[in-house]
Design goal:
- By secondary structure, the protein is of the alpha/beta class.
- It has one domain: Rossmann fold, CATH 3.40.50.720.
- 35% of the residues lie in helices and 21% in strands.
- It is built from 5 helices and 6 strands; from the N terminus they run E-H-E-E-H-E-H-E-H-E-H.
- A 6-stranded parallel β-sheet has the order 3-2-1-4-5-6.
- The longest helix is centred in the middle third of the chain and has 14 residues.
- The chain is globular and about 45 Å long.
- Pfam families: TrkA_N (PF02254).
């Protein structure tokens, strides 16, 4: 008998972006687990956040397993380190079969390495530039 996938989401890294993602996924009805090394990071979650918080290193596979990564439908790696985000997003996708996997990245070389589509890169710089061009009607 296999595991049943749920609308479970793991968010690793609770900086400003990670907190916003965790809150948004929670309000969308996902069962969210927010993971960060710093317990004070969770102070930025809104009062409506209905998920769990776990103090731990999201790059540690044992922490991810304790958070039941194998049941997750969504995985968002948004620590302050591109190499960590790339690595743990790949692990989530390729080892644990998480269907929707995202990595916050600034490094263009790492973004290029994700061209196979198993992990969706989120590049704040590129997204801001696209938004600017759209708003300024620059194509």
């Amino acid at each position: 008998m296999g595991f049943v996938k749920t609308r479970r989401a793991l968010v690793v890294g609770c900086g400003e972006f990670g907190l916003a993602v965790a809150d948004r996924l929670s309000s969308a009805g996902c069962s969210v687990v927010a993971i960060d090394k710093n317990p004070a990071a969770f102070n930025g979650l809104t009062a409506s956040f209905g998920g769990e918080t776990v103090v731990g290193d999201g790059a540690d596979v044992s922490v991810l397993e304790e958070c039941e990564i194998g049941l997750a439908s969504y995985f968002v790696a948004c620590t302050s380190r591109d190499s960590v985000n790339y690595f743990i997003a790949r692990v989530a996708s390729e080892v644990y079969g998480v269907e929707h996997t995202f990595a916050r990245l600034e490094d263009a070389d790492l973004i290029d390495m994700l061209e196979d589509g198993t992990v969706e890169p989120i590049c704040p710089h590129a997204l801001c530039l696209e938004a600017f061009c759209r708003i300024a009607n620059m194509g």
